[in-house]
Amino acid sequence: MFRWGVADLFSYRETDPDSLLPTWGALRTHGLTWQPGWDLPALLDEWETRLTGVDDPDTAAIVTLPSHETTDALPLIRHGFAPLVVIAERRAGHVVAQRPSDVHVRPATHADLDVAVELNLGTIRYDEAFGMVSERPNSAQHLRASLADVLDRPTESMWLAVRGDTPVGMVYVDMPEDALWIERYARAHPFAYIGHLGVRPDARRTGAGSALVAHVHALLDGSGVASTLLHHALPNPRSTPFWYSHGYRPSWTLWVRRPALRS
User: Fewer CB within 10 Å, N or C, the chain?
Assistant: First the structure.
């Protein structure tokens, strides 16, 4: 039987500070890769010796494991980890009754780029309270470039919820050709990835987010996409019930300790 060596399970990654990536997490990340049958308590003890001396506030230690592996929860809690992020998945065909809303959904264009950046920054600022994402001094700059790239895609990938003439929400999707980066977590093919959903604070609980999601799901289901994935902040009291009411189920959970060094 093949056995993983300890060195195969641990990883380290530094992100480019002049990019959008540090907005989504720490600059320096120590990772532990889940494998079936692992002895997590022993691995965590070993990991602690490797992290000794990592005295850097902009670091994180992250253990990514299947959400159903609940027997691993207590050792992680005892080592100071918290479940902060979930990769959730929806299978095609899950239909949800749409609540009435006074918004209509339309494709976004480059003329909407300022609004798209503002809405995405609003989501980042709200989620910052839950321990994983953080607005950096250059987040707006890199977010603008990233969303402009989404608008440049040949396949329509971004939509706005509009009330009257005012955009109140935005969603964008990595279509199958753009979602290969998350393939290791997909359980059905082809698959897509929801990169952002956000609405203005005064538009929450008005059905704007549900209208955007219903539009995206109808489009993806109709084009034969079998699975849609997304990340959401597990402690967020809005996103967790929202996504699960729309047919998503937890697939992988990111247990995070930030900074990486245990205090």
Answer: N
